[in-house]
């Protein structure tokens, strides 16, 4: 029985970040820890660091910077609606504002309709127009 309670008390940071859905895979979470993108009290942490309720972590993902407080230990990956119950997002307001500004100024690279290269129909009309002039 003691091995079961021991398992529920110990949780690695990489597994925790994966289970609360900050990272798509556990290996991505471990890589982020090893490359210094996960910090506890300003110090980078190893993927094997134990997580405790009440800890606050700064996490930098591809999408944004997070500041999360551990609200509960989650050992398995669950739906997003369930996962958000196991952490408290304490990201500073200025970071959230920066994200909103970045999203509003984001350009997808798609061309606007009716602008740019002519369509096949447009080319046929142009060819017909050019043939009539000669």
Automatic annotation (TrEMBL):
Keywords assigned by UniProt, alphabetized: DNA-binding, RNA-binding, Stress response
Protein's GO biological process: cellular response to heat
All copies of domain RNA-binding S4, residue ranges: 11-71
Regions of compositional bias (Basic residues) in chain numbering: 108-121
Domain of life from the UniProt record: Bacteria
Residue segments, region Disordered: 106-134
InterPro entries: HSP15 (IPR025708), S4_RNA-bd (IPR002942), S4_RNA-bd_sf (IPR036986)
Sample GO molecular function, one term: ribosomal large subunit binding
UniProt similarity note: Belongs to the HSP15 family.
Name of the protein described by the UniProt record: Heat shock protein Hsp15
């Amino acid at each position: 029985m003691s091995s079961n309670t021991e398992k529920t008390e110990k949780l690695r940071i990489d597994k925790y970040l994966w289970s609360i859905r900050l990272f798509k895979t556990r290996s991505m979470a471990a890589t982020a820890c090893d490359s210094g993108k996960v910090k506890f009290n300003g110090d980078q942490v190893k993927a094997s660091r134990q997580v405790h309720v009440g800890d606050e972590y700064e996490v930098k993902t591809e999408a944004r910077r997070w500041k999360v407080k551990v609200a509960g230990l989650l050992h398995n990956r669950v739906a997003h609606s369930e996962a958000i119950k196991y952490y408290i997002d304490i990201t500073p307001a200025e970071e959230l504002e920066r994200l909103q500004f970045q999203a509003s100024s984001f350009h997808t690279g798609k061309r606007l309709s009716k602008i740019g290269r002519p369509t096949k129909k447009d080319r046929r009309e142009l060819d017909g127009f050019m043939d009539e002039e000669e």
